Amino acid sequence: MLILLAFIIVFHITSAALLFISTIDNAWWVGDNFSADVWRMCITNTSTCMAITDDFNEYQSIQAVQATMILSTIFCCVAFLVFILQLFRLKQGERFVLTSVIQLLSCLCVMIAASIYTDRHEELHQSHGYVMEVSKGQYGYSFVLAWIAFAFTLISGVMYLVLRKRK
After folding, report:
1. For residue 101, how many C-alpha atoms fall within 13 Å in the half-sphere facing its CB?
2. What does pTM read for this prediction?
3. Please, is 43 exposed, middle or buried when counting C-beta atoms within 10 Å of its C-beta (0-12, 13-18, 19+)?
């Protein structure tokens, strides 16, 4: 049982780390000499960055991605705290339903964010607010980590739903 508990905790912490990295790091859309994320666009040759503001086309879509990624990260951290509290408060044989619901909300938020970015990426990168041509890029590792975090939070949410407290 202790090994299962350790696995669940490590799995949850890994999910949270993936969410933090994909939310913060500047690699949702990358090219030969630039990288862009939901916060800013950087030119790698000159190491200059510019914030994405309301001057950009589809700024509302970027804000939706920002908000849902932040919510996802918050829900994942709250779910971990609730899980730790439930370890000490639940009676033997009860399920971790509250932790599961919060973790599944995290899963839903990251899925919404990655889906919006996937759907709107062409319009997002056609903006005249960029100082260089960014439409010829490709998805970066932060975008991929967001989808991996979706899978991890989904698995852990279902795992918490199935899991019962034992001695």
Report:
1. 5
2. 0.89
3. middle
pLDDT in tens, 28-78: 888 888 888 888 888 877 778 888 888 777 788 889 999 999 999 999 999
What is the 8-class DSSP label of residue 130? Answer: S
User: How far does Cα 68 stand from its chain's mean position?
Assistant: 8
> For residue 108, is pLDDT > 90?
yes
The C-alpha atoms of residue 139 and residue 118 are separated, in whole angstroms, by 9
Burial class (CB within 10 angstroms; exposed 0-12, middle 13-18, buried 19+) of 103: buried
Structure tokens at 90: 């639940």
Q: Among all chains, which residue has been given the structure tokens 């062409």?
A: 122
DSSP 8-state symbol, 39: S
